[in-house]
Amino acid sequence: MKGNDEAPAQPRPLPATRHDRPEDRLALHGGAPVRRTPWPTYDKGAVFVHPEDEEAACRAVRSHLYFRYDHRPQHETECGRFEDELCRFFGTRHALAVSSGTAALALAIMAARVPPGSLVACPGFTFVATPSAIVMAGCRPFLVEVDQDLRMDIDDLRRRWDPRIGAILVVHMRGFAADAEALARFATEMGVPLIEDAVPALGAELNGRKLGTFGAAGAFSTQSDKALNCGEGGFLVTDDRELFARAVALSGAYEGRLRRHFPDGEPPLTGLDLPLLSLRMDEIRAALLRAELTRLPERLRLFHRNYGYVAAALADLPGIAIRQPVAPGAYLGEAFVFRVPSGDAGWFARALCREGVDARNIGADDDLNVRAFWNWRFVYDTDDLDEIRAMLPRTAGYLREAVDVPLSSNLTLDDCDDLVRAVRKVAAAAPAEHPVTAAPAPAGSAEPVRR
Ligand SMILES: Cc1ncc(COP(=O)(O)O)c(C=O)c1O
């Protein structure tokens, strides 16, 4: 097996896959699988943690100083240092470490002064945490269609704009940049803040600018399978001094502790008119994250290398539609998501799993995938799944066609070759097994029912 640091990422010639040879019989039908070792995913423990990261966390444990707001000045705490380092990494004025990505999102909405009860627009393809954070902030999700590349569809948002929308919450889902530049312009035009759920895209860039820095605030998670991982946790970044002060106060900086975040002057508010929600980060996790942050650029390079390698090797494959980035390289590369527009994506994903590659059909009926909007039952007035799917017919169609393969940064190029072989093998067999199915319903064929 080749090591992670092996470059270059040019596609290598692979043996042709023909389904008339015994070795090309699908594992689903008793053939030999492409690989027999487990597909590396973060969930199974293949995280990017090194001994020096463990040492940093142990140092924090041994210090017995676990609370970020003890007697030490801000710049001597792990949390304070982590926030300074985040500001340098993202090029923002402010950063706040908090208890989760969901907390960072909810804080961003509240701190941006979105009035409680407002609608907050978010895409129909995201993790359930996005609409949950909107609810946590006292607002209501307003779901928007995604386009064929599974990005928030700005034309749909414009078409169905509702004056009760108080913010746009864009998501860079599965690491792919949404068109954050266009959305930032649109948000300005409509007079509402743009907030970025950049949780799935930590470190990825769009046209040389880090995702999470295009709107009023960007939210990130440091939970288990993120580019920085301490089990739980998150942070937000912003250039807005007042938004930052409100987020700090809401997160739990009481009795003057807000001042520690403004070493160059007085904070713009006392925080006494805000509730204290206790969504702080602790010193042990911050120490671990600081150590991981030093190797983040290398991890980002590996994500990019692997994704670019796989996408290039499968670009010519008929029958699958690979997501196209909004600008060259505008993705993290933590997942390989493609659609099977005229086949059966559920069957395709099952066949890939049997070949030894983790794969999931996002819109499968038999899977309670919380990235599919119809599984966010708390959002709707109805339990009728057909009625819910009809609210975003194009998104429902695209998610039914979508296959999701995790691309851990610890994949080697040999692992990537296995993925390419498996997708080619399954695609070669697909037309015979699954002739063309019905196309998705056209956009706007049903009136949306939203709370
Ligand atoms: C798109 C998205 N937003 C928000 C979150 C929430 O992050 P956390 O689990 O840290 O609350 C996640 C978690 O995976 C996510 O995928």
From TrEMBL:
Swiss-Prot/TrEMBL cofactor(s)? pyridoxal 5'-phosphate
User: According to the UniProt entry, which residue ranges have a biased composition of type Basic and acidic residues?
Assistant: 17-27
Region Disordered: start-end pairs: 1-34
Record key words, sorted: Aminotransferase, Pyridoxal phosphate, Transferase
What GO molecular function terms would the record report?
transaminase activity
Entry-linked Pfam families: DegT_DnrJ_EryC1
Can you tell me which family this protein belongs to? Belongs to the DegT/DnrJ/EryC1 family.
State the protein's name. Answer: DegT/DnrJ/EryC1/StrS family aminotransferase
UniProt organism field: Micromonospora rubida
What is the phylogenetic placement of the source species in the record?
Bacteria, Bacillati, Actinomycetota, Actinomycetes, Micromonosporales
